[in-house]
Structures are given as structure tokens and as C-alpha cells.
Amino acid sequence: MSVPDIRLVPLASGGSGIPLLLGPSLGTRVAAVWDRARPLLAERHPLFGWDLPGHGVSPATTTPFSVDEVAEGLLRAVDAAGLSRVAYAGISLGGIVGLAFALLAPERVTALTLVCSLPKIATPETWIERAAQVRASGTPSLVDATSKRWFVPGFSAEEPSVVGGLLKDLMDVDDESYALCVEALGATDLRSSVRDLPMPYSIIAGAEDPIIPIVDAEASVASARHGSLHVIGRASHLAAVEKPDEVASILLSEVD
Q: How far is CA 181 from the centre of its chain?
């Protein structure tokens, strides 16, 4: 196991609030998955993002890593960028990494929001099967099933260019890096650590997300010292893409 090389992505320089660090979903570039919510967030905060190994600007790797090690790589990148304190919001795997990051350096995080994410997602068996599929057939083999998980019915027809761009990014992800991300996700269960968070902790969930059960989100925020849950109607796993204004508005209310 080793700490992967995580690269930060400057997303917007406007706004006078605390820097807002945005995390990606598995299979996406952070700049693309947050693109539709970015304008509203940037009115009040400078924005930074980061990419998972083998995604976007972060180099591919063949060495296994844990979610905690991704968080360590993220902390190194934040240090290199000179960011002393940030508010954090991450989608799916980017949310779990954000939780690990906040546990690693709680004095550096003013507020933590998991977007369509939980401290534990699905079962280890689910992710073992996904990793095997990608190693055998590559990330293009995931496109049809992923599109159904990411978006509510009809969204692809409403926003074909948005959906097409995100699915192309999925196909461009390095296969082995994706498989290693999936294995790290499957080995992670941070549910018992949520109670240790000193900062406000919130979850934004899509009402139609097949990956993130609302009952599990309710249990997670109930275990926190300062927890809150926001459920967005007619949204699935990429709520920040489907309902960017609502996600941004909720996020700003948690961060400010």
C-alpha cells in the first residue's frame, strides 16, 4: 500500500469566503462533475478540486492504496497549495475520502458535506465484482449500468451533452487505477468514526439514488455531534449534475 499522487485543480478564484475543496465521484473528473454547480458556489468562495488516481489530472498507478492513503495524498496536495483551512464537499468516493481527510486533520476542515455518499457504501462483494469487470473489460463496459445509477430516467434525453461528456470521462479513466479505487472503497467503513468529527457534518442525498439508501444517511447524521440531512427530489447519484442549483444552495447554507 502507498500514498497516491493526488493533484489539486483550481476551479474558481472568486469569492471572499473560506476556500471550498470539492471532491469527485468515482469515474469522473472533478472539474466536470461540479461544473454546473460551480458558478453559484464561486460567487462566495474560491474553489479547488482534486482528482482520484488515474482520473483527470492525477497520475495513474498500479500500486494498491486505501481511502486513508488517498486522504493523506490529498492533505499533501492541500499543503502544497498553501491552503491552511478549507470547507469540504465530495461526491460518492470523494465524500468518503473527505471524511477520512477530516478525521486526519480535523483542525483544517471547517465543515464537511458528503454528497450522494456515506461512510460505507454498498458491500465489499459489490466492489470486488466491479474491479474484476474493469480489469477484464475496461471502464467502457460500465457505461450503460453507470448511466442508470448516475441519472434519473429522462435526464439523459434532457441533457445529452452533459451526460455524454461525463460518460466519456468514465471511459477515459485508467482501468487499473479505477479498479484500485473500487477496492479501496470496498475495504472502507468509517461509520463509527463520524461521532469523532468536531465540525458540522451533513449529507446531501438524491431521493432516487440506488446506491445511497436514505435510511443509512439518516443513521449517519444522527451519529454525528452536529449532523444534518438534505434530500433532493428527482435526483439520483450525481445530484450535483442533475440539480446543481439545489445542491449549491444547500452546500452554501452548510459552509457559511
A: 12
